[in-house]
Amino acid sequence: MSRILELRKTLEAKEQPANWGTKSASVTATLMSWNSFFGTIILTEDAPAGVGDQLLITIAEAISDMKYVRGRLSAIVSAMNKSSWKIKVNCQDTFLTDPEEKEGKDEAGNTIKYRVFKDSRTTDSAGTVKVSTASSMCQDSTKVSAWTFYNDVTAMQEMTLCPSALSRWGETTLTSTANSQSALKAKKLNALKRKAGAEIILHELTHSKAIHGQDKKTRDETFPVTDEDGNEKEVQAYGFDNVRGLAFFDPAAAITNADSYGLFALDEAMYYDACVWDEGVCTGVDKSGTFTGAHFDY
User: Fold this and answer.
1) Is residue 290 part of a domain?
2) SUPFAM superfamilies this protein is in (predicted)?
3) 156: part of which helix (H) or strand (E)?
4) How far apart are CA 292 and CA 286, in angstroms?
């Protein structure tokens, strides 16, 4: 999280690229990554207005968003450092049975649809679990890697890591791929994401009501795309291309999208910092001079 703080303080201090000194490479990398994951920042008066329906954000908005994003990540670290905080981790969800389709209202009064499952782990008549119809579970598809829910009966957050994902991960960890240009060159973020479980687990922890509260837990956001036949549809912001698409069309939603956090943490801003991942792939190209000579209009 130090990279986010470094970039934020640089912008708050209104430092010009010419004065970044030894931190130039790290600030440049984090700034380029931020533009891809959370929205392109307007840095100069003559900056392009955006392509098509692209929404840009001001430096002030970016600083505020950086505080918010770092706050969510800090909340996870803080929670996991507390001996009193607990999360139940399941390796399958077959204990949830007898689904019933229901309809109700959310906190804003909007009509929502959800499923109610019997929790077969308890004989208590109150042992039921509500799951949004938009949520995918392990028992729904082998393509699902994990999901999380807040158990109202036990007042505990539960995360389920799906058998298909556990089988794919095996004993592979992020450290199985060295954080070096030679090891990462030509690697794609999406492939690294699927190779080990860390990104998925962080993704799920950003969903946690127990950590963030109802108002600040993330969602799996969507944004509209037009297919080759001219039909518009909503796609979920999973994976690099769709995360970047969400940041392009709706930066405000990007800071509440779970996979934006997971991928941002996986890339140079947090872990694999030997590369710049603004294009979702480690190209090996030196981008440290991207902003050299630029004058930011603070």
Assistant:
1) no
2) Metalloproteases ('zincins'), catalytic domain
3) strand 156-161
4) 13
Domain count of the chain?
A: 2
Instruction: Kindly state whether residue 127 falls inside one of the protein's structural domains.
Output: yes
| Domain that includes residue 106, residue range | 88-161
| Listed residue (136, 178, 150, 145) closest to 164, CA to CA | 145
Whole-angstrom CA distances from 102 to 111, 125, 260 are 11, 18, 30
**pLDDT digit of tens for each residue in the chain (298 aa)?**
789 999 999 999 999 999 999 999 999 999 999 999 999 999 987 665 556 677 899 999 999 999 999 999 999 999 988 877 778 899 999 999 999 998 888 777 788 888 999 999 876 656 788 888 778 999 999 999 999 998 877 788 899 999 999 999 988 888 899 999 999 999 999 999 998 899 999 999 999 988 999 899 999 999 988 888 888 889 999 999 999 999 999 999 999 999 999 999 988 556 898 888 999 999 888 888 899 889 999 9
pTM for the model stands at 0.90
DSSP string of 233-271, one letter each residue: EEEE--HHHHHHHHHHH-HHHHTTBHHHHHHHHHSTTTS
